[in-house]
Write a structure and sequence with these properties.
Elements (H helix, E strand, L loop, with lengths): L8 H5 L2 H16 L25 E8 L4 H4 L4 H5 L7 H4 L21 E4 L4 E4 L3 H4 L5 E8 L5 H10 L9 H9 L9 E7 L21 E3 L17 H22 L2 H23 L7 H7 L18 H17 L4 E7 L7 H25 L6 E5 L4 E6 L12 E4 L3 E6 L7 E3 L1 E2 L6 E3 L2 E2 H11 L8 E4 L2 E4 L14
Parallel strand pairs: 1-7, 1-8, 4-12, 4-15, 5-6, 5-7
Antiparallel strand pairs: 2-3, 4-11, 8-11, 9-10, 13-14, 16-17
Helix pairs in contact: 9-10, 12-13
Length: about 500
């Protein structure tokens, strides 16, 4: 018989000899509120929210790098009048910029032309002619603000509520709270176009939730997920036998170790097996009509003479395809789709590069709104366009940049986002910034207010959707936040 002193520590604590002592300790910790609750469930099965939801799926577009609100969504005629003038030193004395040199910084008016659209009279830039046709379906928030002024922390803030690593992202919270309505595809899918962004995988991480709820990155070409197809010569029956054998070993290990990530591993193997049939059908766009493909602009060529940040081979085609795939994913019961494109970080060459990115996104996003609407899916699908912060009304003035090639620096104090569908109020223009777009002066909306409102659309009280972690009840809106009821339909 083995010497008890040689037993593994985990085995000792789970042995019957220590069971009563552990129960007593657990009771004391629980009385003091120091004992974490049972590990979060790994089951992706559908679950009920706190109250009747308006939305059941979300398509969230993150234009990484942060688009300029002043040049797309928030017209500022006064800024034109003040073009190339200095701000009073009092306005910038305690402001931290990423790159701007305060002593020589000047205001920079937008070169864009704005016009009113729809019955709601929403003013949008001439860079967004297609989206302008959807003005009466859009809810535009012009008074957003955030706590972080550099990209990665601000992206973490936008996606997970705090500017720190290790937290579940919004898609993970919603798939954890609601489960998935599909058995053959992940509940949370990520689609990318263009170069990688600074946030990377942390923008779709499950944090301390089981990895069952992490976003699954689908590739733009070839197999949607690497190593999804069986190797040559391996039949489906043989693969299923192998899967069952591996699952048996994993379950034995789960019973022994009680590690929830083993349960996630079992679920991942089983999902991958089912996806072998579902994923190829998903990405087969031959099922779509030519009219639909043209509406999204899937076959648009890359524009000549434009480039810079965000450009690359077939970026127009890939982004348009991603928008169409996003519709196909929510049709098949996927709960949350994150679409990512980088980069909208226009520190220089603003007009050309923002023009490229806007042209890439404008037609497919407008098509997505119209397509969801005509299929009866817009009411239950929330579509979100939200960068991590805004851009300064000041021109970025690092040395060597010609005046006609200037850009704008990072600006956390004010920016614009828009939403459509999913119970949000259509044709709504909410909030207002000052006459140069520096800060909100009416109805400011913090990131955590934004999150609380989105959770409400999905039937959740943001203060009750929480998980025990390290003795604390942790939630998406830990830093605060309130539901902005005026945004709800």
């Amino acid at each position: 018989m083995a010497d008890p002193m040689l037993l593994a520590r985990r085995q000792f604590f789970t042995s019957s000899a220590s069971g009563l002592g552990m129960l007593a300790l657990a009771s004391l910790l629980d009385q003091d509120g120091l004992l974490a609750a049972e590990s979060p469930s790994n089951s992706p099965a559908p679950k009920s929210p706190h109250f009747a939801p308006q939305a059941k799926s979300c398509i969230f577009f993150l234009p990484e790098g942060a688009p300029s609100h002043i040049d797309l969504f928030d017209p500022k005629p006064k800024l034109q009048d003040l073009h190339q003038q200095k701000l009073p030193d009092s306005m910038t004395a305690n402001v931290r910029f990423a790159f701007i040199k305060k002593e020589t910084a000047v205001l920079w008016g937008s070169q864009r032309k704005f016009a009113k659209h729809g019955q709601c009279g929403m003013e949008l830039s001439d860079f967004l002619p297609h989206l302008a046709t959807c003005a009466d379906d859009i809810c535009l928030i012009r008074s957003m603000h955030t706590d972080a002024f550099n990209h990665h922390p601000a992206q973490l803030m936008m996606m997970s509520g705090v500017p720190r690593f290790g937290r579940p992202t919004m898609g993970s919270w919603l798939t954890y709270g609601l489960g998935s309505e599909t058995e053959n595809l992940p509940g949370y899918v990520v689609l990318t176009a263009g170069r990688g962004g600074s946030g990377g995988v942390s923008n779709w991480s499950s944090g301390f939730l089981p990895s069952t709820y992490q976003g699954i990155l689908f590739r733009g070409q070839g197999e949607p997920v690497l190593n999804l197809a069986s190797p040559p010569g391996v039949s489906r029956d043989l693969q299923q036998q192998n899967l069952e054998a591996i699952a048996k070993l994993n379950r034995h290990r789960l019973d022994e170790m009680h590690d929830p990530e083993i349960a996630s591993r079992i679920a991942s193997y089983e999902l991958a097996f089912r996806m072998q049939a579902a994923a190829p059908e998903l990405i087969d766009l031959s099922q779509e009509s030519q009219k639909t493909l043209d509406m999204y602009g899937v076959d648009r060529p890359e524009p000549k003479g434009k480039g810079g940040r965000g450009s690359g081979p077939d970026v127009f085609k890939r982004f348009a395809t991603n928008c169409l795939l996003a519709r196909r994913l929510v049709e098949r019961g996927v709960r949350f789709v994150t679409m990512v494109h980088a980069s909208w970080d226009h520190h220089s060459n603003l007009d050309e590069e923002l023009g490229y990115c806007s042209e890439m996104a404008d037609q497919p996003l407008a098509a997505l709104i119209k397509d969801l609407k005509q299929r009866g899916l817009l009411d239950s699908t929330l579509l979100v366009f939200a960068g991590e912060f805004g851009r300064t009304p000041l021109a970025e003035n690092r040395g060597g940049v010609m005046p006609e090639k200037v850009g704008r620096d990072h600006h956390p104090f004010a920016f614009s986002v828009w939403m459509a569908g999913g119970g949000i109020k259509p044709g709504c223009i909410y909030g207002k910034t000052d006459e140069i777009g520096w800060a909100p002066i009416e109805n400011p909306v913090h990131i955590n207010d934004f999150h609380a409102t989105i959770l409400n659309l999905f039937g959740f009280d943001h203060k009750r959707l929480s998980v025990k972690y390290k003795g604390l009840n942790v939630r998406l809106t830990d830093q605060g936040g309130k539901v902005v009821n005026d945004l709800l339909a």
